[in-house]
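Quick one: DNA protecting protein DprA from Desulforamulus aeronauticus DSM 10349, structure tokens please.
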Amino acid sequence: MAKRQYWIYWQLLMPGSGRRLWQLIDHFGSPQEAWEASETDLAQVSFLDRQRAKTLVRRRETLHYDKLDQLLRKLQCQVITVEDEQYPALLRNIYDPPFALFVRGKLPNLDKIHLAMVGSRKASPYGLAAAESFACELARAGLVIVSGMARGIDSSAHQGALKGRGATVAVLGCGPDVVYPRENSLLMKQIMEQGTIITEFPPGTPPTAWHFPSRNRIISGLCKGLLVVEAAAKSGALITADFALEQGREVMAIPGNITNVKSAGANKLIRQGAVLVTRPAEVLEELGLGDSTPQQPDLIENKDALTGSEKIVFTALSHLPSTQEQIISHCQLPASEVAVALTMLEIKGLIRVLPGKMYVSAGL
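--- reply ---
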């Protein structure tokens, strides 16, 4: 059996057990020696006892790589081991990288900077709009947007990256062939066409609660930075932020309404030292890229041709979404004049309309 298959075998046998798998390697010296160890020798490992070692040996004997290989070919799913060149270097260097990754779609572009975007599953219209807007503009700027394909902020981040015609990576807490949540079936297909599906869990693995904290270390581990868009005080996004800090990543957060409990976690992160960002350009600056992405010439030309009311309305907008009522209040213009200005600005490509009739600036 080839050396790389031992990495894959252990990943099949103990998916989501990164730290324990590395303890095995530390104990035996290599995945092959660990695989060939006797029940007695396995029982000497710190997290195993005689009964657990017996169960492990019994399960080990049921694995057949040929059957897995056939299934992976059918799914058009690749397997990358921690020793392969295609394995992301940033992820390889975290404390407990997965032994192997199951990948569908395009292999990750390791030359591009990856940014994780996470937040609440039960996000507000503000949070959803902000996630989509930031992801769209940052994907256009060349960043790879990484998230977990969960409901809420994750899905909006992937959708924004796709709309920006950029790359996006979805890290799953289940097998690469399992759609979770079910309503994201189309989104998963679109991600595979334009980006990447990655998981440490083998085909057929259902989503289970404990899988997601394990998944979160991969989301942050793939990236140079993490952006928390909206998160409650006890959100899985904060677990990802903890992993990001542990891994030495840049942690940023978009501020939220202080009266909204869904923003409490993101606001707390800012209070604890996370970088507050209100524009995609600030994310680029924090990642060391500067505000270097040039605006499109046609957008600059359109800005120069704005009428008086269009300039006022455009100046009132940012990458944090606003309702038409908020814009009217800020600009102190008649509702009909603001409505016309918004329509013209959208036609000129200077603003975008997000779900829930929320308006944002279209430029970095």
